[in-house]
Amino acid sequence: MKIAHLVLTYTNPQLTERLIKVLSHPQFDFYIHVDKKFPIEPYLYLRKYRNVFFINDREDVRWAGYNTIKATFKCIKEIAASKIDYEYINFLSGQDYPLKTAEYMLAFFEKNKGKQFIEYQSIEREWVEAQPRITKYHFTNFTFKGRHRVEWLVNLLTPKRRLPLELEPYGKAMFWMLNPERAMYVVNYVESNPQLERFFLLTWGSDEFIFQTILMNSPYKDELVNNDYRYIDWSAGGAHPKILTIKDFDALRNTNDLFARKLNAEKSGKLLDALDKLILPAAEATAI
Asked: Which Pfam families match (predicted)?
């Protein structure tokens, strides 16, 4: 069983390298998308690893903007075009880090073959605070002068927006583990319906609801497991999760999640070292 780990990053190539080394396995490949705003050259030394590939068609990723989805779609299409028979694409950021060994993860995917892992809630009934992301116009993807004023006026003068094609909106977290065919289903569905692309372009944080919405309105909804197996701490409040540190080690050691986010090469340095000591000996013991 082959797995493609897809990493969207702009932060620290050394942190990405640590992830690659900890998860090194003949069945794992790594696809790296470096935000187009940032130079790719600091990352290119990672080509020394045979299982590392760079996404060629890079996108200028804007936080909470539709460009994040455009970048993700480009990555999925390049992975699909590789013609390698991957069973799963595992979508990561450059600030995620493994909590289990490669052997553990491979056994997890083997055991759960045919299931799709993504967090979801109904935006109409459960995640109601996310409704304005869809019902209002957002110009997050644009940078023209007076953007916020225009956005305010448009929302003042226009009715609430509704998703095209009578889709029921679902969402939650942006990360997932999907079969490439299901990921391509989302890409093809959105790109073959221009009214959807136009609608999503003017939403906020579309990366946290497009995949859920399309899949939960698809023939594949029964395959979805409502869990992305990410350990994330939102206790700090605000729009960003807490940066994990060595104080979080015990919680991470005892979780069933496969990955932790969000880690920082400097603030999380001691935690990264502790996780490596936990994971690498276990991997060596499994190999023996």
From this structure: Branch
Confirm whether 254 is domain-assigned. yes
Q: Please enumerate in sequence order all residues whose Cβ is within 8 A of that of 237, keeping only pairs 6 or more positions apart, or say none.
A: none
Structural domain total, the chain:
1
Is 159 contained in some domain?
Answer: no
CATH number reported for the structural domain that contains residue 73 in this entry: 3.90.550
The pLDDT score that the predictor gives to residue 287 is 45
Task: Name beta bridge partners: 171.
Answer: 121
- The torsion angle over the Cα atoms of residues 211, 196, 218 and 63, rounded to 10 degrees, is 10
Q: Could you tell me if 75 and 55 are in contact, meaning their C-beta atoms sit under 8 angstroms apart?
A: yes
Residue 41 φ/ψ, nearest 5 degrees: -55, -40
pLDDT at position 235, please? 86
What are the distances in angstroms from CA 215 to CA 162, 176, 183, 187, 226?
18, 12, 9, 11, 12
Cα–Cα distance between 96 and 108 in angstroms, integer? Answer: 18
Q: What is the pTM of this model?
A: 0.94
In a domain, 224, yes or no: no
For 262, the domain range is: 2-113+229-287
Residue carrying structure tokens 């340095």: 269
Residues paired with residue 5 on neighbouring β-strands, in sequence order: 30, 90
The tokens of 256 are what? Answer: 């069933």
Establish if 98 belongs to a structural domain. yes
